[in-house]
């Protein structure tokens, strides 16, 4: 009997050790956060000259929704939103730069797709902008619908979901087109303005961003059709789930803050005085949610104080380029922005 009990106990102990070993193997991996802290700054990849998302202002400071997404992550890690270096990149450069470790994360009008997660070793941490692909034409063309583009030349960037969607749309609608494929965003926009192509296709937000920077924005027309779903958001390398958690929950914390009425103007007061249990947990008054990710418990206070909640980011960066909040409203307001419970 004793022998049987000893054997059972031994098997149980071995099982526990095996599970522990598996858990250790699952958590082992690169320490991106450690590397960021040792370096003293987050390196974040952003788009080149994308008004509303990532565009240097007159003082050379990067401004935009994606730039602020990077700043929020820096605030979570360091408590200081200024500890970030921005590396602008093209659609062709972006994934190799992330895969090679040249940048820590990517926040640059990048569409979340299955293939990018299953084939490129990347993980999307959330959606900071719901978008869709559209077309822009010159008003003098007389074109008012994408269905009138049969036989048109269309400017498009290579290596993007945009290029695939364009081909699918014309094939589905039995229409012909001639692509003008140019990698550099400034060159492709110049080609469109100069008349090398009849239409320019990209995410509708990117088209609106481009139009907003023109001397005569009313010379250009965004056609009404959206031909795809383009959920855009921050991307990290697979394998370092600690860093993934920080990037993901930073975005969710900003959305949750807007839901709860926590803003850059009142976050300090609410952190001291609020009796709302959800706000207390969000701002680190109760629980150890920050410590569970390896950051300070008041990480959200630092994010909101320095960068703002999601609504503040949108109002500051996207509203001025003429894009209504639309589907990017909070879920309770008829939109799709929704944060899982922070508890």
UniProtKB/TrEMBL annotation:
Claim: Kinase is one of the keywords in the record: no
SMART domains for this protein: PBPb
Record flagged with keyword Glycosyltransferase: no
InterPro entries attached to this UniProt entry: Bact_solute-bind_prot3, Solute-binding_3/MltF_N
This protein's UniProt keywords: Signal, Transport
Signal peptide (from-to): 1-25
Domain Solute-binding protein family 3/N-terminal residues, every copy: 41-270
Superkingdom of the organism of origin: Bacteria
Family, similarity comment: Belongs to the bacterial solute-binding protein 3 family.
Classification via PANTHER family: AMINO ACID ABC TRANSPORTER PERMEASE (PTHR30085), AMINO-ACID ABC TRANSPORTER-BINDING PROTEIN YHDW-RELATED (PTHR30085:SF7)
Name listed for the protein in its UniProt record: Amino acid ABC transporter substrate-binding protein
Protein's organism: Roseomonas alba
């Amino acid at each position: 009997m004793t022998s049987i009990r000893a054997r059972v106990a031994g098997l149980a102990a071995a099982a526990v050790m095996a599970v522990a070993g598996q858990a250790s193997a699952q958590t082992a991996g690169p320490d991106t956060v450690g590397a960021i802290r040792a370096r003293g700054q987050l390196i974040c990849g952003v788009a080149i000259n994308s008004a509303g998302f990532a565009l240097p202002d007159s003082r050379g400071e990067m401004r935009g929704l994606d730039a602020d997404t990077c700043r929020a992550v820096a605030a979570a890690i360091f408590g200081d939103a200024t500890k970030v270096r921005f590396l602008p990149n093209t659609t062709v450069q972006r994934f190799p730069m992330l895969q090679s470790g040249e940048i820590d994360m990517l926040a640059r009008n990048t569409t979340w797709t299955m293939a990018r997660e299953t084939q490129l070793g990347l993980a999307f941490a959330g959606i900071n902008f719901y978008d869709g692909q559209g077309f822009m034409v010159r008003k003098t063309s007389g074109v008012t619908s994408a269905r009138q583009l049969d036989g048109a030349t269309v400017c498009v960037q290579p290596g993007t979901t945009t290029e695939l969607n364009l081909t699918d749309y014309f094939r589905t609608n039995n229409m012909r087109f001639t692509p003008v494929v140019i990698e550099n965003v400034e060159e492709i926009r110049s080609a469109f303005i100069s008349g090398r192509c009849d239409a320019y296709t990209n995410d509708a937000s990117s088209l609106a961003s481009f139009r907003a920077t023109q001397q005569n924005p009313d010379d250009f027309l965004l056609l009404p059709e959206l031909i795809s779903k383009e959920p855009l958001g921050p991307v990290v390398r697979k394998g370092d789930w600690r860093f993934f958690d920080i990037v993901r929950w930073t975005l969710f914390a900003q959305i949750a803050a807007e839901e709860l009425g926590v803003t850059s103007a009142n976050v300090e007061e609410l952190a001291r005085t609020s009796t709302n249990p959800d706000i207390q947990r969000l701002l680190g008054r109760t629980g150890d949610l920050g410590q569970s990710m390896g950051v300070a418990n008041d990480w959200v206070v630092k994010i909101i104080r320095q960068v703002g909640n999601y609504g503040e980011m949108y109002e500051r960066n996207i509203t001025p380029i003429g894009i209504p909040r639309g589907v990017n409203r909070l879920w309770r307001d008829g939109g799709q922005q929704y944060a899982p419970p922070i508890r």
